[in-house]
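Our example pasted here:


***
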Amino acid sequence: MYEQQSTSGRKEYLCLLSVISAISVVFLHTNGCFWHFSSDKPYWFWANITECIFYFAVPIFFMITGITLIDYKKKYSTKTFFLKRINKTVIPFVFWSFIAILHCIFYTKSITISELSLTTIFNGIWNTRFMHIYWFFIPLFFIYMTIPLLSYIEEKYKDKIFMYIILLMFLFNSFIPFIINAFGFGIDITQHFSLGCDYIIYPILGYLLNKYYKKIISNKNLIFGIYTLAITGLLVHIIGTYNLSMQAGEIIKTFKGYNNEPCIFYSIGIFIFLRQTEKFLMNNKVIKCIILFLCNYTFAIYLLHKFILDYMHANMETALNRLGLPFGIIPICIIVTFLIRKIKFGNRILP
């Protein structure tokens, strides 16, 4: 979900990050049975683990956005920046949202034609009611609208201001709410520190982690700390969600949420891990070819995979379907995208 360039013009680690995140999104949605809690069926135990393992997908996408776009002024104007965003994301989002309306009318039958009006269509698209997995686009658009503010910060002040923003967002949106919820203090904090949207922390994190990557990996103590926090975040997410949900008889989200501490620590760890393994993976010619090929289809996979999953009517409580279907869905998405791109304006709706 980052600046689409020719494959040869992309940095290989960005391709790797994008591909792993796209694949993870598909695994999250084939694992959708997680949201149908069951204390007496074994599938939910494993679905909870799968959900938590692949939870980094959206944060990594947002990190990539920060890496590729925060310094856009070095490449083109703000006008060009917004025109590119409209062409690359807004147009596909609107088009496939209308396809989702048809999907809801004629396939899922969750709405009828008589229920449609300009108001319901606008509300349904903006609030992603027709295709709920498109929720990602709305914070993404707010991130796009915020990035020019970040880009215009003078270079000599940028890192300090970014660290200040991260500190405030982590403190008021993650740390304090996490402590209050985890220990049941009963304090109601409804106000968050926000700059455009709560998810802006990830583009800024991605930008800084990328900029100072070499310094980070050269510090063994820092790397040890990052991975320790990442593993701790993952385990807290898995075990905490399982225990609290089993006690309550329903899914408890105390340890969930993309702005929650477990997810932030885990996502940072995954980002560093993928960057560290990129050279090893890309030195393998077969893996490199696969990654560079899939990189051209990551956005299309995100847009299309849920439609295909719905048409499969698979029993998602079985581990074989939850973990195996992505290997069928992704090739179908690629074939459909390849064919659509062959028609006029196909690249406009599936860039």
